[in-house]
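Anyone? Bumping this.
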Amino acid sequence: AQTVTQSQPEMSVQEAETVTLSCTYDTSESNYYLFWYKQPPSRQMILVIRQEAYKQQNATENRFSVNFQKAAKSFSLKISDSQLGDTAMYFCAFMMKYGNKLVFGAGTILRVKS
Amino acid sequence: DAGVIQSPRHEVTEMGQEVTLRCKPISGHNSLFWYRQTMMRGLELLIYFNNNVPIDDSGMPEDRFSAKMPNASFSTLKIQPSEPRDSAVYFCASSFSRTDYSNQPQHFGDGTRLSIL
């Protein structure tokens, strides 16, 4: 069974600075997807970024980028130029390429301070 | 485009009552998922449907929980009878699964916060 571990329960960052959220996972599969979802206080679950395991290039979406280390089974999220609106719970999630189940980590609460 | 629509947004009811949560997936999506979020257990997949057929219900906690998808645009999650430990946020999500079974990201509704007194 796949597991996802987020070892940082809470983090804080000053506005405009950069922060990195950690995620590790365990799987014996070679083809899979990794995701970061954001859950602001409004409770929505918003897809931030997606990485396909067979692609070596790290995914980027505007201020959000990942550092995907397949051999280390590590998938960290970097948020550049942090904004107050980035304050949220961030979930790392795993899904097999030919599957439908999302396995979530426990989440990291990120607080952006002005 | 309309996202996944869930109703109600909040539900408060007494123990023993029947609760029905509703979900309308994104048009064109053929997979639908029900999740439960609690402080203790985080986000858990309860059940998912593909082309209106339940594929995996191994996450459904017990017989008090049931889910249906009578057509491509509607699904329900029912709890009968409800218990205080069922209090949680319930999310519905949908995605498009291609014929080669490689799947697209899941898009979530805003969730239903359920409180059982």
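Late reply, but here is one note on the structure posted above: Chain A touches chain B at residues 33, 35, 37, 42-47, 50, 91, 95, 97-102, 104-107 (CB under 8 Å).
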